[in-house]
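Annex B. Sample input.
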Amino acid sequence: MRRLPTFSKAALAAKCAFPWNGGIAWPEQITSDAANFGIAVHRAAELLALWGTAPLDAIAEHYGLHGSELKRFHLTVGWVADFIRGEREQWSFAAAEVAFAVDPFVDESRILEQDGPRDYSRARPAELCGTADLVTVVGEQLIVSDYKTGRYKMGADPSADAQMRALGYAAARAYGYDSVEVRLLNVDEGGVRMTRRLLDVIDLATIRLELLGVVRDTGEVHNPTPKPGSHCAQQWCPIASVCPATQKTIAQINPELQLTADIRSPEHAARLREQVAVAKKALAALDTAIKEYAKRHPIPLGNGKVLGQQERTRRTIECTPEAVAALGRYGVSGAVESSVNMAGIKRAVKGVCANGQAAGTMRAIMAELEKLGVVKTRTYTTIAEIKRQ
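Annex B, continued. Sample output.
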C-alpha cells in the first residue's frame, strides 16, 4: 500500500518526496533516550489534561528515566501541570492525543480510531494523518496545542509550521469550525513557553491546497531522485541512513565508510565505529571552517535564513551575601554557587513551591534581585541562523 507522509513530515515532504516515492525500504527506527523522554512527557501531559493527575514515577520507570533524567522529567512535567491547571477552568471541551485522517480532495477530516499511539492503519489510501497532543474549546474558540520538549522549534510561529497548519486544518474540519487557534508549547525544566496564532477561513482553504500538493508530490513518478538540502539535517528523515544522497556525501568524506543500519558482526561494528570517528573529525573541521567564513561573509541558507554572527545576552546573578540572603528567604539559596542563570533559579523555585505558586514566586525573586543590583547582563556573539531582514 502507498505510504503518505504524516502531518509531522509534511514540511520534509514539501522539500523532498523521495522517502515516500523512492522505493527504498525504511530501516527500523531505534528509539533514543531523548525520544523516550519526550514520549514520557507527552504521556504525562495527556493524563494531566484528561484527569488532572498522572503516575509520574510509573511513567518514568516505563520509559527508562533515571538519575538526572528522572529529575528533569519531574521538573518539566511540574511546569506542564501548572500550565494545564491554569487553563482547565476555561475549557468547555478537551480531548488529548486525537488522531485525525484528512482527505484534502473532498475537504474533509475525521477522528481516526487507533489500536495504539500513532497507529494510522485504519486510514484510507488518500488520507493524510496526524495526532494533536491536545484539542480544547475556550468560549467559541477551537484550540489545538502541540508539546515540544527541549529547544525544538523554540519560538517558532505555529501558523508557519507545516505540522501545526495541518493539525489546525484537521481539527477545524473534524469539529466543524471556521477558525482555529494553534499553539506550540515548548516545555522543559525551565518552564512552558507558548507561541500561538489564529488560522482563519482563508488560512484553512490555503492549507487544504498545501495538503493536496503533499499528496500529489509524494505520488509515483518516473525515476524519482532525492533532493538533498538543509532539510536533510534540520528535519528528521526516515531514510537518512540509507538515502543515496547521504551515501554520496559520506563517500566524499571517507570513501571506505558505508552508512548502514545493517550491522553484520562485532567486527563490522568496530570497523564502522572507527570510520565514523574519522568522518566526525572531518565534519568538525569543515563545520569550524564554515563558521569562520560566516563571521566575515553571512551565508544565505535555503530556509529563508542567513548563517552569520549574532549578538546574544545572558542574565546571571552576582552571588553577593545580599543575593544569597534574598534567595534564602524563598528557600532557593541552593541554586547559587558562584553565579546562577534564570533557568537555574526556575528549577530551584519549582522544587520548593507548591503547585501553581512557582510563577509568582519567580517574579517576586527577580524583582528583589533587580533592586539589589545583582542581576548582570552579559553580551556575547555566536554563529547562528538568523532571519533575513
